[in-house]
Amino acid sequence: MAAKGYFVWYELMTTDMAAGEAFYRKVVGWDAKDAGMPEIEMAYTLFSAGAGPIAGMMILPEEAKAMGTPPCWTGYISVPNVDEAAKTIAGKGGKVYREPGDIPGVGRFAVVADPYGAAFCIFTPQPGDQGWEPAEPNAPGYVGWHELYAGDGPKAFDFYRDMFGWESSSDFDMGPMGTYKIFKIGDRDFGGIMTKPAEMPMAAWNFYFNVPAIDAAVGRVNEAGGKVVNGPMEVPGGSWIVQCTDPQGAFFSLVAPVK
Length: 259
Hints:
Elements: E1 7-14, H1 17-28, E2 31-34, E3 45-49, E4 52-59, H2 62-66, E5 72-78, H3 82-91, E6 95-103, E7 107-113, E8 119-125, E9 143-150, H4 153-164, E10 167-173, E11 179-185, E12 188-195, E13 204-210, H5 214-223, E14 227-234, E15 240-245, E16 251-256
Parallel strand pairs: 1-4, 5-8, 9-12, 13-16
Antiparallel strand pairs: 1-5, 2-3, 3-4, 6-7, 7-8, 9-13, 10-11, 11-12, 14-15, 15-16
């Protein structure tokens, strides 16, 4: 199975799957196809980059709408045992929004939240599934960075460290916005954790999709009906980022090695 603590899947819950497919095909360059899984009794689209699928898309469930959940991206973190991990998360003060359940032929998952409000999924592949490896850092179409706007940045970092084995790589002082804590898995940086700005309504994970150049990607976002909400801006290390919403309102980001 995938090593513990890696994000191994990303999922868009949206209000318009056809529009979502058209948008991300254009902006990120993904291929898309129906998952072909009648046993899950719902439409599910697979987004692919490079060697194979990296993300999925589904209609925002009615129960999620009832809880006030907007269209959004969610990440799946690999764990050895979903049931045990869900109990541990609840015991640490987190929430279990959807109890562990099976995805036929794929694995077992649960929808949870950390103790400071950010939702994510935990996932264990079916036995014998050994095929997953993290993509290269700048591989086009893959996720190049994972960013948590946390209810409490330092405490959230401690939770994910204890839960998934993430390690501190470095801290970046953002002045009035506080400390940006970069985390690593093994010897590679995978993302950052910060306390969310006061104007942000809820804690959330944000995912940065790799594109070749940021200005061209901004043009595609605008042409396809999305909105740029922050950037473009250069970040330490020389990459360029932009933060956006898609036409249905889901928040996402893009990262590129050049402007």
